[in-house]
Amino acid sequence: MVEFRRIGYIRVFEVRVLHHFWLDEGATVFDQIADPAKKTQRLLTYDVRRVLDFAPSRSTAATIRGLRGVFRTTGLGFLVAVPDDATIPLDATFEFFATVVAPDYANYTAAALARPAVTAPTVPALSPQPVVTVPDPVPDPVTGATTQHRYKANVPVLSNLTGVARGVAPDMHLFLSRDYPAASAGDAIEALVAVGNDLRQRIGDPSNALLNVVGLRASLPIFVHQGDVPAITPPAGSAGAPAFGIELDPDTPGDVIAVIRLAPRRPIGSPFNFADPDGTPHPRVFEVHLQNRWTTWQYHDKRDGSLTSTEAGPLPLTHFGNAGTKQKPPTTAISAVFDGSTPPRIARFVSDIYV
Hints:
By secondary structure, this protein is mainly beta. The protein has helices spanning 36-45, 58-66, 105-108; strands at residues 9-19, 52-56, 70-73, 77-83, 94-100, 132-135, 148-153, 157-159, 164-166, 173-175, 192-195, 198-202, 211-216, 245-247, 258-262, 284-290, 294-300, 307-310, 315-316, 334-338, 346-354. A 6-stranded mixed sheet has the order 3-4-1-16-10-9, with helices on one face. Strands 17, 18, 19, 20 and 21 form a 5-stranded mixed sheet that branches. Strands 2-5-15-8 form a 4-stranded mixed sheet.
């Protein structure tokens, strides 16, 4: 007689990666859409896999296999499920890499942009740079070989150890981003900063660029921002490492744009714990929010190209709805307006609309 054993699976955690270009309704942020049915429908048609790809690190994949678990990407992000009798090792680290698959991703995604010779290299940003190899000045004492350290600047690390919770259960949101930093004169263009109760965004190159009001911080999600990029501590005596970013492990893809790093437990009682003290899975849903780019919309006469009007301030680019007063722009019609400095500084990003 054949024996069967049914194994039940439990979702130990889910990471939802929500890009607001594909979710917002014009000037209305997705989270503030009043109609629950409309929000549900928007999520049902959303698929982050057309924008980003997610993959576990080699060691994380081995940990999941050891738990008889599964990793799956979904329309909202990705999840890990394990048998309901599994015990999560409390010293484990679950690490995942995000890479871009959409060719136009940079057009409609806001990111604190570091510009060489304009932005100080000691300012964190979100514009990933080419991989830099830095030799360790101290050779291996046994083999005499020189270790090569590989770094990539401006890659954020999103973690439940440093993320911020907003709201009260059952409506609590667990953001993997840190809280927003205060504004600084050296902030990179498109940096998100806290000013009083407002979330603001620098619309041009430092140091005197205006800070556009995105909205009240309390009513907005925590978008991925420049404060999520960790400082790099290279070997003493070495030279050439960037100030902010990550050191690449052998299996870290060179085109990584973000690292998601999760630990089973924070201090006791934290809502970010996805395992109990005995390792019993305690399912959690974490959120990562990507901000859509804001540009100043300029309307032109399509007959002769003459400028007819300009919106009073930057507006968000969205797939649904229209934040402007006339026709909305395509995401391909974005350009930078420069000032007369040397080197030239970006005064603002504009979208040109021909009507």
